Amino acid sequence: FTSNKYSNKSSSVFRNTINMNEDNDEGKYVKLVSSEGQEFFLDKEIAMASSSTICKMLEGEFREARDNVIQFPAIDGYILERVVRYLHYKAQYSNSSARIPDFPIEPEVALELLIAAKYLDC
Amino acid sequence: MALSSLLFSLVWFVDDYFVHSFRYLRIKRHSQTFFITCNPDHTIKYVKEQIALATKDELKADQMRLLLPKKGTVLTDDATIQTLEIKSDTVLHMVSKISDNEWEPVDVFPDPISDKSS
Question: Which of B35, B47, B79, B95 is the most exposed place for a label (fewest CB within 10 A)?
Fold first, then answer.
């Protein structure tokens, strides 16, 4: 397992979570919305650290950056949920020398998950 | 040689501790899922406050109830993640208050894959 695949940002993000960094709560959570309107709320830091597509959407002068909401009309809810679970898995184990467990993927979702992962670059 | 391997295992242990302290919960209500990261010593109250923060106070912490999925056990505010032995990635259900003594029934958007197999 090569840890240099992931940026150093992920590990410090995760340690900040442990240290309960509560200085600025305002924009802490972002909302990802799936094709059928399911809403997934997660830490903004985790979203940005693990997916460069999401990171670019949330930086710069976009409405997404202002509202902290990103719509994914092409991704179904049950796929997007697994993506968000993966983002947490990635944030947890990046730059970690502990034994890393496999990320569970049900075979039925594997293909659609791959398509979403390619789109989100994560 | 022995010292460096001792230091290495210390670093590994500390890293391991961080890794195993990190957890997130998935709290579900209607078509919303909240991924709340927390430490073992955070309370249920903290989780509710984080949900309120995520919804920008549309849902208020004192009008939420968190339940274990299968049995529907209500989780008390001052219980900690550690004492409840809740593992990372666990799903909890949330219901909102209708009136003083009434809570809405559990209504969670189904997952087509995992609901089929369970």
Answer: B79
CB contact under 8 A, B33 and A96: no
- The span from the CA of A68 to the CA of B70, in Å, is 33
Cα(A89)–Cα(A82) distance, rounded to whole angstroms? 10
Nearest Cα of chain B lies from the Cα of A41 at a distance, in angstroms, of 5
Neighbours of B59 (CB within 10 A): 19
CB–CB of A28 and B24 under 8 A?
Answer: no
Please check whether residue A72 is in contact with residue A64, taking contact to mean a CB–CB distance below 8 angstroms.
Answer: no
With beta carbons less than 8 A apart as the criterion, state whether A28 and A41 touch. Answer: no
pLDDT digits (tens, 9 = 90+) for B48-66: 999 999 999 888 888 999 9
Most confident of the ranges A5-9, A19-23, A26-30, B43-47? B43-47
Residues B37, A17: C-beta atoms closer than 8 Å: yes
Q: Give A71-87 pLDDT, tens digit per residue.
A: 999 999 999 999 999 99
The interface predicted TM-score (ipTM) is 0.81
Residue B55 CB contacts under 8 Å (≥ 6 apart), including other chains: A41
